[in-house]
Every structure is written in C-alpha cells, then in structure tokens.
Amino acid sequence: MVIRYFEKIGNNTLYHLEDLGRMAGFLAQSFIGAFKRPFRFSAFIRQIRIIGADSFWVIFFTAAFTGMVLGLQGYYTLRKFGSEGALGSAVALTLIRELGPVLTGLMVTGRAGSAMCAEIGIMRNTEQIDALECMAIDPFRYLVTPKFLATLVSIPILSLIFIVVGIFGGYVAGCGLLGVNPGAYFSGMAQSVVNQDINMGIVKSLVFAVLIVWICAGRGYFVNSIRGAGFGAEGVSHVTTQAVVLSSISILVWDYLITAIML
Amino acid sequence: MIQFVDVVKSFGAQRVLDRVNLTINSGKTTVVAGPSGQGKSVTLKLILGLLKPDSGKVLIDGQDISKMRSRELNRIRTKFGVMFQGVALLDSLSVYENVALPLEERTRFSSAEIKEKVLAVLAELGLGGHENKYPAQLSGGMKKRVGLARALMLHPEIMLFDEPTTGLDPQKSMEIYQLFAKTQKQFGYTSIIVSHDIPKIFNLADQVILVNKGKFTIFDSPEDIQQSEVPEIQAFVKNTMGDIYLSREME
C-alpha cells in the first residue's frame, strides 16, 4: 500500500518532469525557428490578421466597458476622499500596469489561443505534422514560429489599443455621465503616468504573448503525449480546455510575479 | 538499400518488434503484410526515423538513422516520399499548395517553375482542373492521387505507402495500383507498401514481409508464402490468400 503510494508519486513526478522538458524543447525550437530559412513572411502576416486584427472588436468592447466600469467605481470611491480629480490617473494607471495587458492576454487566450491549440492538435491527430517531418520540413518553423512571432507583435499592440479605448471609456463614464472635469481627467493622467508604468505594461504583454503560444500551441502539438487526455476529437477537446485554463492561470501568476519584481 | 539489424521496439510492456532483420534492395517493391497491430506501421515509422528502435540498427544506404541528429535525419528524409494511410494532406491548403509545398520549402525554384512542375504532375495523375480545390472537397481516390503527387514532387528514391487503398472501392484500388506501377517505372523508386489488400497487392510485389508476433518472415515471391510450413503463416494463408483463386475466377 505504502510502496504503491510512493510509486504513484514517483510516476507523477517523472511524468511532469518529462512534460516540462518536452515543453521547454518546444519553446526553444519555436524560437530557433525564427532564424531558419526559408522565412514564412506571408504566414506571419496571416497570423497577425488571425491573432491580432481579428481580435480587435473583442478587445475594443472589453476595453470600453472595463474603462467605463473603472470610471464609475473610481468616481464613487474617490469622491469619499474628495479626490474626483484623480480619476484620470487611477483609470490610466490601472489600465497601463494591470488590466490592459492582463485582459488582453485573457481575451486572446480565449479567442486565438484555443483555436491555435485545436488546429495544431487536429493536425497532429491526422498525421499532418508527421507528413511535414517526412518532407524534411521543420514543423516548428513551418507551423509554430509564425504564430509565435505574430503573437509577440499582436499582444503589445492590442494591449495599447485596450489601454487607449479603456481610458476613453473611463472618460465617457467619469466626465460624460458623472461630471468630472475633462481637463483634470487628462492632466492628472499626464502627471502621474511615468516610464516605469509603461515599461511594466510592455514587459507584461510580451511575457503573456510567450505564455499563450507556448502553452496553447504546445499542448496541441503534444496532444497524444498528455496523460489522460483521451484520443481523437475527445483528446483535442480535452487538451484545448486544459490549454485555455493553464494559459489563463499562468497569465495571472506571472502578472503577480512581474508586478512584484518591477514595483 | 534499407536494412534492419537486430531491431527491437517495445511500447510499454508490449514488444512489437523482437530482434528483426531485413534487407530491402533498391528499385524493388516490398509488400509488408500481416494481421493488425503486429508492427507494420511501426516498421514504416522506424524506416522514416519517426520512431527510434530500443536497440539494433536501421540502416539507409549504410547509415544508421537511429542515432542521427535531426539535421542529418532531415537530409536522409529527402530520399523519401510518403503516402500516409489518411493521406495527411494539409487541410488548410489547396491541392496546388499541397503539391507545391515540398518545392517551395526545399528548393530554390522560382514561382513560375514551381507552377509549371506542379501543374504537369497534377495533369499526369489526372488531377488537372482540381488545383484550387481543398482536400475536404475531394473524393477518397482523388486525395490519394494528390498525396502521391506531393510525395513524387522531389523525385524520391524510396516511396513508402501506408495502407494506400484503405477506404477505396475495388475499381479505385485497382486504379491506384496501376498508378503505382506507372510512376515506379517512370521514377524508378524503391517501393515499400504496407497493405491489407491481400492477395491483390501481391501482384506488385518483388518481396513480401509477413509481420507476426514481433517477427519478420521474408518471402522472395507471394507463391513461397503458400508453401510455408509455419502454422501461423499457414493460418494467415488460409484466411487471406485462399481468396486468390476465387478472385481470379471472378475476374
């Protein structure tokens, strides 16, 4: 009984170490793929459209309503201290440091990350990845690297869009509906936002981009090696759910870690 | 030449190939047959380097691919053309893009040269006019022909076919076999065919390998199989090749 218990712990540890090693190799190969020829520029542009441009409206509406909620909540909280003029600073700092990159990361995970995982998982199950290998075509360079680079470019831009739209959402709620002085809203923002805040937002969005592709594409790529995932369509479905959950949690964990390091 | 030297391959506790030896000569057609789940597809994957043996050597033209790094393996793989059981066409690419893929990725031909070569091969295999269709819009037989066209684009020295006629009706199967014979004559490749389509597939074979319980039994001709005294092979003959005569009478 006791031996079996320890055997189980040992097996689980070995499995997770093996999985981690596999995923580390996947990340390295995807990165190295960017330096291998021929470059797949058209695939990179196509992925920017799929991951970036096609996510625009999701990001726009999420940002607009998040900014409006921040405007409302911020106004009623700040009014208790007679500091309604600081609303612009509060909305901007919250969006730049935290909500812009985090919510962009979560939305892209749900929209593009899940699709990425399912697409690669199905390609694995239908031997399309084996076919690439047999044609001596590096599947990392061909399949994953364009997604990797496109996500690295798209997430910071989408985060920037999120922040700008969110600030205007806060403006609509705070200045348009609740009567905060528009001059105070924007001037307070200009005074309180410093380079370190912007750097934190950029670092977070880049780290989240890596996490999304690494976890979502990686889980799809190794769909048949994941214990308990099942086979065929069930396997892809299970792994896609797992990828979205894992990616979302990782974004929140890394958000805390980066904040703790950079503050 | 392809050689297996004392190859062992296991999955967990199941030993799929048990110290097997094999020689496949250049320019010949070898058929790999046997009951399901006995290691036929594993044999193909070992030849392609998609799986590594637990012990023993897999030699391609004298080079052991089981110990190669991925770059060397990719160089060896340029000798291969593969037609998978499910064809494995990239389903987001059109017929033209699928067939052009090996040329675009592995050669420095201009777009115009690639277009000329691809359209020529598609016309040769009776796929002219279908180049803009996607795999989901093709019939089973057409998918197989597109798979063959893609595999032949780089003039491989060795062609591997994994269950090439699965899911096709007898007439389409016969068309595919005729296409194999025609393209082999044209390109001169070594052909390895894993198939259940017994005894028809034996018409193409120069050599037959029966895989059973982790062992290879090699026959120089399909007729030799019928004369085997091994009980498992006799049972296999009874279940499969007994149909040869029925089939010929029917034909």
Description:
The complex is a heterodimer of chains A (263) and B (251). Chain A starts with a helix and ends with a helix. The mean pLDDT of chain A is 92. In chain A, helix 1 (2-32) crosses helix 6 (139-177), helix 4 packs antiparallel against helix 6 (139-177) and helix 6 (139-177) crosses helix 8 (195-221). Chain A is 84% helix and 0% strand. Chain A has 263 residues and is mostly helical. Chain B is built from 9 helices and 10 strands. Helices cover 39% and strands 24% of the residues of chain B. Chain B has a 6-stranded mixed sheet with strand order 6-7-8-3-9-10, sandwiched between helices. Chain B has a 4-stranded antiparallel sheet with strand order 2-1-4-5, covered by helices on one side. Chain B has a domain at 1-78 and 193-251: P-loop containing nucleotide triphosphate hydrolases (Rossmann fold, 3-Layer(aba) Sandwich), CATH 3.40.50.300. Chain B has 251 residues and is α/β, with parallel strands linked by helices. The longest helix of chain B has 18 residues, at 170-187. Classes of the chains: A mainly alpha (263), B alpha/beta (251). Chains A and B meet through helix 5 of A and helix 2 and helix 3 of B.
What key phrases describe this protein's structure?
heterodimer; A: 263 residues; mainly alpha; elongated; B: 251 residues; alpha/beta; Rossmann fold; six-stranded mixed sheet; 10 strands; 24% strand; globular; disordered C terminus
Q: Can you give me a brief rundown of this structure?
A:
The complex is a heterodimer of chains A (263) and B (251). Chain A is mostly helical and 263 residues long.
